[in-house]
Amino acid sequence: MSNLELADRVGLSPSACLRRVQELERSGVITGYRAVLDRGALGHGFVSYIGVGLGEHTKDAQESFERAMERAPEVVECHNITGTIEYLLRVECADLASYKQFHTDVLGTAPYVTSITSYVVMGSPKNLRC
User: Fold this and answer.
1) Is the pLDDT confidence value at 2 over 80?
2) Distances in Å between the alpha carbon of 102 and those of 23, 69, 79, 124?
3) Could you tell me the pTM of the whole model?
4) Burial class (CB in 10 A: 0-12, 13-18, 19+), 123
């Protein structure tokens, strides 16, 4: 949003608002800006979260799995988590067929993977990522 719109929303003059935003940038509170993309328009409208369990709990197993996920363009987020599994992935594909290919060819061949649980996103009534 523009500085003028932000200033109006927070009840400041545009110059005071700009100074505060610049100070937040300098201090590292604001670390950057981003474009919000329409995943469907880009051909990535099929979104799923996937829980992945590894058969070994070693540094080598984790690093090997993480390298494999880094190479997979469908994986837009990879989180090492606590609990009964080691990883939670956010995967974006064109459609169910491309997701099946990813599931088989990428996750199915990734090192140390022993369990895969998929959760397909049917809608996102709250998404602060936007």
Assistant:
1) yes
2) 44, 11, 18, 22
3) 0.75
4) exposed
